[in-house]
Each structure stands twice: as C-alpha cells, then as structure tokens.
TrEMBL record:
Pfam families, A to Z: MS_channel_1st, MS_channel_2nd, MS_channel_3rd
Protein name as annotated: Mechanosensitive ion channel protein MscS
Entry's localization field: Cell membrane
All copies of domain Mechanosensitive ion channel MscS C-terminal, residue ranges: 183-267
Keywords noted in UniProt: Cell membrane, Membrane, Transmembrane, Transmembrane helix
Superkingdom per UniProt: Bacteria
Organism encoding this protein: Paenibacillus pectinilyticus
Domain (Mechanosensitive ion channel transmembrane helices 2/3): residue spans on this chain: 70-111
Classification of source organism: Bacteria, Bacillati, Bacillota, Bacilli, Bacillales
GO molecular function: mechanosensitive monoatomic ion channel activity
C-alpha cells in the first residue's frame, strides 16, 4: 500500500495524469463545440428552406433536422469516446479493425439503400420539389404525394401511384415552382378582317383575366403565328399560376369561340371544291 502511495506521488506520474485529464477535458469541450456548430448550421438551413418557393411539410423538415442532429451527435460522441479511451490506455487497434470490417460488410450489402437515403436527404435540402408539386421523373409525371428518405411517391392524373427509389432519380422537371404559360392558337378564315379579329381577341382575353383568378396578368395577343392552307392562326398567351395552363387554355378557347361567333368572325373548317371536266362531244 505504501509502495502504491509512493508510486502515485511521483512527480512524473502526477504530471502524466494531469495532462491526460487536460486532454480528456479538451476532447470533451471540442466535441461539444462541434455539435453546437452543427446545430446552428442545421437551424440556418431550415430557416433558408422556409424562405424557398417550394414549401415542405414542417413536420417532415423537423424530423429530418432531428435525424441529422442525432447522426452528427452520435458520430462526434463516438469519436470523442474512442479518443478518451485512447488517452487512458485502451488499445483501439483491434476495435477499429473490427468496426472497419463490419462497416465494409454493411456497405457492400446495403449499397442501394445507402444511395437512396443520401439522395433523399439531398432532395429535401436542395428543395428540388415538395409535396403537392407536379413533377416529371423520367417517363412518370404526376403530383408528389410523399417524399420519403428512401422513396418518393407520385400520383398521375389518371390515378396510378408510382413509387420511385430516390437513388434512381437522375433528372426532375418541376412544373409547380414558377408561373406557367398557356398558349392558345386561334384559327380564322382568310377572308376575315384580321385587325378586327385581333381587337376582339384583346377584348375577350381582358374580360377572361378579370374573371379568372388563375391568370396573373392580362393575356397578350401576339399576332399571326402561322399561315395555313385554309386559315390564319393568331397566337394568344397568358401567364398563369403554376400548373394551371391546361385549365386556363380551356377557358380561353371556350370564351374566344363564343366571342368570335357573336361578332361574325368565322373559324374555318375544311372545305372541298370539286371541278367537273366537261368532255367534248364528237361531231359538234
């Protein structure tokens, strides 16, 4: 007992223990600082996401932020514990080797799953699309019903639900981020008064704009777009809310047809003219 007391009381032993304690405290403080910085970074990302034009369900974003916080916290704490164990004399070589072999085996067995999860995180953080958006992934187009960490679900307008692994998403077209353009080509007969027809179109599109909330500004009558075999085509465009161009186009078509009919502007239809050749009678 006296030998142990004398051994512990040696200055070099006391200095060694003191520095070990200092290192352990520093490791702990640095780990806490790293976690605090990570938390602030996550909070900043969430605030920036809230200001994005694409809105994601708050509950989902909170869940993702908690998952990231836990992932960073567990990783930093694990590294800190291993460093502390190394300071107190534990041999970490066999432990690290075993963890490396286990991680390699899991990585080979779950490559597809890891790829799906990582891609899912990037989809959410980069605000590529949100729930309720109309998007197209490869040949699949529809409304996003769910953005999961591993898969994305979209529902087509005919009712089919497509479940797409996030790792398979290479290119996305989002139809719901910005305003869309409805394009309407109006055919009029050659013998119609073009100036009069364009004036009537301006009148009716202004009236439709006042009654239709999906149109964000007065539609434009661009002019004669094409000269066809039996008609002239006048192009009308209307800027409308995202993904409403189909509905707005149908409204414009119906109202334009009624307005032109009421003012005697004919919308052409195919006509066939037949010429009969009269044969010359012999002897006349």
């Amino acid at each position: 007992m006296n030998w142990m007391r004398e051994h512990i009381s040696k200055p070099e032993i006391i200095a060694s223990v003191f520095w070990i304690i200092i290192k352990i405290v520093l490791i702990y403080i640095i780990a806490r600082i790293i976690i605090k910085i990570a938390d602030k970074t996550i909070t900043h990302m969430m605030v920036a996401r809230e200001k994005s034009p694409i809105k994601i369900d708050r509950r989902r974003s909170n869940t993702i932020s908690i998952l990231i916080h836990n992932l960073i916290s567990y990783t930093v704490n694990l590294v800190a514990i291993m460093l502390i164990l190394g300071q107190v004399g534990f041999n970490l070589g066999p432990l690290l080797a075993g963890a490396g072999v286990l991680g390699l085996a899991i990585g080979f067995g779950a490559q597809s799953l890891v790829k799906d999860v990582i891609t899912g995180f990037f989809i959410i953080f980069e605000d590529q699309f949100g729930v309720g958006d109309v998007i197209q992934i490869d040949q699949f187009k529809g409304t996003v019903e769910e953005i999961g960490i591993r898969v994305t679900r979209i529902k087509s307008w005919t009712g089919e639900v497509h479940i797409i692994p996030n790792g398979n998403i290479k290119q996305v077209t989002n139809f719901s981020t910005y305003n869309s353009i409805a394009v309407v080509d109006v055919s009029v007969a050659y013998d119609a008064d073009i100036d009069r027809a364009m004036e009537l179109l301006r009148e009716i599109v202004t009236h439709v704009h006042e009654r239709t909330e999906n149109i964000v500004k007065t539609p434009e009558v661009l002019g004669v777009q094409m000269i066809g075999n039996s008609e002239l085509k006048i192009r009308v465009i209307a800027e409308c809310k995202p993904n409403t161009q189909g509905e707005v186009g149908r409204i414009l078509n119906a109202e334009i047809k009624k307005h032109l009919d009421a003012h005697g502007i004919e919308i052409p239809y195919p006509k066939v003219v037949t010429y009969l050749k009269q044969e010359k009678v012999e002897g006349n």
